[in-house]
């Protein structure tokens, strides 16, 4: 049994160490075949630092502005008193009764409707608190080739695994699995039992999750007896938990089959091939999965066996129409928006050829055309540039997702001309100064556009040429296979991730910025509305951006000498605490900014006067 020795968390670093330890213990238990047992989780969820981290996470999520059934968004939380927010969340965790979720319908690319359930912002924060504490325990036990809804994993990794199997084994018979209405058919009792089996022995936490699952839907029902609402923060994690029993059952039949003798690498599978077992390899991304085996006969037998197991053990069904058996040598399988087919012979098997699912791509292009045409209606320059940025984000998102396809450039090029001319016409109608400019001459998306001389439609904004990017700026990109040691819950795992992403880690936030005592002192003594919740959350972001140094004198900052200065304190409450309005300065320099005394140190005189001038100018504007 793992009992957390000290449930009081001082800062974010301490929380991270606890999460790392939960992951380590759960992984160790799994490897040694020991039962999982974790208690004291409720107090970790209740911690002020956990709540702060949850709000940080939600704040950076684009759905944070979406209203729940009580019409609150993250802004209502950020602009509230610090202590009151913490007390409110803690009180509601202790007596958790979720509010009704708001139904939102999203039109899917196939014309069908996906029903989302949007919890209130308060319920989202509580769900995130539970997810933060529970996820490392679950992550340590999840199947290694399950890639959906998991940190540091993406669809390309699952596609790479699918391509790797025929290459190494020569197996080409595939079950393309699809579960009928998966999220809507999750059985609550089975899910809670699965959480218990995976080590969540704190009954208070299980009760919170049970209440989350039963949350009613506004204008539909007061309680929900079946399913996990899509739209809930914790639903993806719970969906993976639910299918973990299925994953474990399948891999015990072949990939992780226990043998009498110890084998290394391929020798184990060579030995297994001599038995009467049906060989297969399995890859899952959320509720989409494929199983690759060596013959049609085995594929049919496995499909029947899986169908019966799912119905008997998880009370869910395979979609008969969508669950197909395909020979990749003759026909491409469809997986996550790609068509995958085997090509030339390799040493042990076959290479694979991947292409974009043409039907899906056409629907995406249709949606993109509609989005671009809306550009015509914007009159304000700022709105136009904002819309251009959004269109660029969509185009780059399409390119980056489909760059795993072998012929991505050829397929996207087919739609490039019509898309780019739609962009030009929409810009021309909106802005008379629209013109064609070489991509490497524009002032946005420089890291992409710098490589191309192809012309793109642009408009002038504040002496800069802002262009709309093109689909043809794409090329095939090989994805590396998942390193199973990569995880957010170990030092080694985080280092592997940073190396893969080629990201330098940000300066670690000063732990004291998240120290409960310091935050409490500041919140208690400063009742001015400008020092609201958003201010405390954004101070570390400004600190990291400023590389932990004073913006005036350049000295190293620690909590005891750090002040966060409002460049323009007269902005509206919704803007005054944004990161670009905050500057990290030392105590002495901060005093000088707000003083009218002459500055004796020449080195900092110019910078102090600059910040003073901002204050005077904005004060004058307010007075005027």
From TrEMBL:
<feature type="domain" description="Reverse transcriptase">
    <location>
        <begin position="87"/>
        <end position="340"/>
    </location>
</feature>
<protein>
    <recommendedName>
        <fullName>Reverse transcriptase domain-containing protein</fullName>
    </recommendedName>
</protein>
<dbReference type="InterPro" id="IPR003615">
    <property type="entry name" value="HNH_nuc"/>
</dbReference>
<dbReference type="InterPro" id="IPR051083">
    <property type="entry name" value="GrpII_Intron_Splice-Mob/Def"/>
</dbReference>
<dbReference type="InterPro" id="IPR030931">
    <property type="entry name" value="Group_II_RT_mat"/>
</dbReference>
<dbReference type="InterPro" id="IPR043502">
    <property type="entry name" value="DNA/RNA_pol_sf"/>
</dbReference>
<keyword id="KW-0614">Plasmid</keyword>
<dbReference type="Pfam" id="PF00078">
    <property type="entry name" value="RVT_1"/>
</dbReference>
<dbReference type="InterPro" id="IPR000477">
    <property type="entry name" value="RT_dom"/>
</dbReference>
């Amino acid at each position: 049994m793992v009992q957390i020795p000290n449930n009081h968390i001082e800062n974010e670093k301490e929380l991270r160490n606890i999460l790392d330890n939960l992951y380590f213990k759960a992984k160790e238990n799994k490897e040694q075949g020991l039962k999982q047992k974790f208690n004291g989780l409720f107090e970790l969820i209740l911690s002020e630092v956990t709540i702060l981290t949850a709000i940080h996470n939600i704040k950076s999520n684009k759905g944070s502005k979406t209203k729940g059934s009580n019409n609150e968004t993250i802004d209502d939380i950020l602009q509230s008193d610090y202590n009151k927010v913490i007390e409110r969340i803690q009180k509601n965790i202790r007596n958790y009764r979720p509010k009704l979720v708001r139904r939102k319908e999203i039109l899917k690319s196939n014309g069908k409707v996906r029903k989302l359930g949007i919890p209130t912002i308060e319920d989202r924060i509580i769900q995130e608190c539970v997810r933060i504490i529970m996820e490392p325990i679950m992550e340590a036990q999840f199947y290694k080739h399950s890639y959906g809804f998991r940190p540091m994993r993406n669809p390309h990794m699952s596609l790479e695994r699918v391509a790797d199997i025929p290459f190494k084994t020569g197996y080409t018979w595939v079950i393309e699995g699809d579960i009928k209405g998966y999220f809507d058919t999750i059985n609550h009792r089975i899910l809670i039992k699965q959480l218990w089996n995976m080590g969540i022995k704190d009954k208070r936490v299980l009760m919170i999750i049970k209440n989350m699952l039963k949350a009613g839907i506004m204008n539909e029902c007061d309680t929900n007896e079946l399913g996990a609402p899509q739209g809930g923060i914790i639903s993806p994690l719970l969906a993976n938990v639910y299918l973990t029993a299925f994953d474990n059952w399948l891999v015990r039949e072949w990939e992780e089959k226990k043998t009498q003798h110890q084998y290394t690498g391929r020798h184990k599978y060579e030995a297994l091939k001599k038995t009467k077992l049906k060989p297969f390899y399995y890859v899952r991304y959320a509720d989409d999965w494929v199983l690759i085996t060596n013959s049609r006969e085995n594929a049919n037998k496995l499909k029947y066996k899986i169908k019966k197991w799912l119905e008997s053990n998880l009370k869910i069904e395979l979609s008969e129409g969508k669950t197909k058996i395909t020979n990749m040598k003759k026909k491409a399988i469809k997986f996550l928006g790609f068509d995958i087919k085997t090509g030339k012979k390799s040493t042990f098997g076959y290479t694979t050829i991947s292409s974009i699912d043409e039907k899906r791509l056409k629907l995406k292009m249709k949606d993109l055309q509609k989005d671009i045409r809306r550009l015509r209606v914007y009159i304000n320059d700022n709105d136009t540039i904002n819309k251009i940025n959004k269109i660029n984000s969509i185009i780059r998102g399409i390119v980056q997702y489909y760059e795993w396809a072998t012929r991505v450039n050829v397929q996207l090029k087919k739609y490039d001309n019509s898309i780019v001319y739609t962009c030009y016409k929409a810009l021309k109608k909106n802005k008379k100064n629209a013109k064609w400019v070489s991509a490497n001459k524009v002032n946005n998306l420089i890291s992409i556009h710098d490589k191309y001389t192809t012309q793109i439609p642009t408009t002038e904004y504040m002496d800069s040429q802002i262009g709309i990017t093109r689909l043809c700026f794409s090329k095939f990109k090989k994805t590396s296979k998942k390193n199973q040691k990569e995880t957010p819950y170990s030092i080694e795992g985080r280092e592997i991730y940073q190396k893969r992403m080629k990201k330098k880690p940000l300066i670690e936030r000063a732990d004291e910025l998240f120290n409960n005592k310091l935050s409490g002192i500041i919140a208690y003594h400063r009742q001015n509305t400008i020092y609201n919740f958003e201010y405390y959350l954004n101070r570390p972001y400004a600190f990291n951006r400023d590389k932990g140094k004073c913006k005036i004198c350049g000295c190293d900052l620690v909590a005891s000498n750090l002040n966060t200065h409002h460049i323009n304190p007269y902005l509206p409450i919704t803007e005054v605490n944004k990161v670009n309005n905050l500057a990290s300065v030392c105590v002495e320099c901060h005093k000088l900014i707000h003083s009218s005394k002459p500055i004796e140190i020449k080195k900092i005189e110019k910078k102090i006067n600059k910040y003073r001038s901002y204050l005077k100018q904005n004060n004058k504007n307010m007075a005027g």
